[in-house]
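Re: that chain you flagged

S.,

Sorry for the slow reply, it's been a week of failed gels. I finally had a moment to sit down with the sequence you sent. For the record, here it is as I used it:
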Amino acid sequence: MNATARTTGGNAYNFGFLDEYAKKEVRRAILKAIAIPGYQVPYASREMPMGRGFGTGGLQLTLSLIGPDEVVKVIDQGSDDSVNAVNLRQFIEMTCPGISTTSKTVESTLIQSRHRIPEQPLTGQQIIVLQVPYPDPLVVVEPSEDKRKIMHGEADYSRLLVKLYEDIVKFDEITISHRYPTRINGHYVIDPSPIPRWDVPKLHHSAALILFGAGREKKIYAVPPYTRAEPLAFSDVPFRVEDFRDPAGRHRACGRCGCTTSFLDEFVSDSGSKSYQCSDSDWCDEQLQQLVVCEEKTA
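Prediction finished late last night. Pasting the structure tokens below so you have them in one place:
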């Protein structure tokens, strides 16, 4: 079967920038990754007009999946307006004429993200693509890729557990703040990209398909909908998320919208005072809008 290039009205690029053969290969790798949850599927990562490490892997997945009627949301560490998110969004708009972009999670059908999963629960009609710098969690304990493949195949993660145990002995807790190793469907342990621990529980039985793309390392893996995702931990030292409680034991509130249930970014002023704000800009806007509506009703 021949792959036919699709160009649109004066656009010199194929729709989605990648040629159709490249898209086919990426889609085949995605199907295999879905069939074997957590398994790292190798693929021929293409050269993109941006440096590796700036989201080329996730971008190739997005461009291979995107359709003419897609509604795309691009975020970077929760923000729609950061430099990386804006550049990737503009590139997608330029090479995929006819698609729509949005800053609202509920309106999107395809989400490309760096370092965050949105606070708004995702649905079965959505796909989220996460950009991954280093896909293999075993790289911190085993430098040889050949040996890591054997360890993954045998589900041998004893050395990784020893590293977590050493953290507990030295610091009284597991100190991994992001890229927390997570076992998928009872077998493969993945690096869930540099999302904070706050987002790791969102992988468990997610209604949305979660895809991971590592362009520099040329790997694709997936967490299919409603799949078990269990962060590595011990029975006497359970996994825990970031603690945003104040000295009185109350969860700190966002200084902009007042939300007390979201992941917060900490800001330190020149005077040394600290303030907090929702990391997810769309969630913060939604909570602020609800707050304004409530105030208008009570006025």
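What I noticed first: The domain at 20-231 is CATH 3.40.50.11310 (Rossmann fold).

Talk soon,
D.
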